[in-house]
């Protein structure tokens, strides 16, 4: 039988990081804690502080309502989703249900009590402010930067003296990436996140770049295909 996974609260992890500050990690952990785990908590200390503040705010906001029956399981599931999205991996509703069902026995939650039903999943989404989101383009650029780049390009074009060039030497080009697989364009993400990137995996991530162009004298240019390899 596999060992049950231990779960530590945000406050406990913060306390361990604070107690181990400026101390030798090997002697501090001894046989009670995993050094790799404590080292990870140290690196995530700022994130733990934010989680603690957000958790306190949620408790104050929801203290009069019904509390979730599986709060520990939901915390672990929420962390798993956050880890997946940090790596830009796609997370689907089915993935969350599958993970929660696999994790429940390790927290002594009987399968006849917890079934990861669609109703539970919807409630979980509301509690953790999650939703199904569509992948966005230019995910690394904010609105201000997009506008700045567009204006800079227009300024560049306005400064060109087109009378110096033959129409046959001026080409309008379009470059498009075509994925060989379907790829998922949606993923579970925080509702407050403005830019969403879903990285396709394996065969779905393979792509070619297609370039089509035409000269200003309306002469067609043969298409050009770039294959990565």
TrEMBL record:
What positions belong to coiled-coil segments? Answer: none
Q: Where is the HTH CENPB-type domain?
A: 67-134
Q: Which InterPro entries match?
A: Homeodomain-like_sf (IPR009057), HTH_CenpB_DNA-bd_dom (IPR006600)
> How is this protein named in the record?
Transposable element with KRAB
What's the source species for this entry?
Octopus vulgaris (Common octopus)
Which key words tag this protein in UniProt?
A: DNA-binding
Q: Which SMART domains match?
A: CENPB (SM00674)
* MF term (GO), any: DNA binding
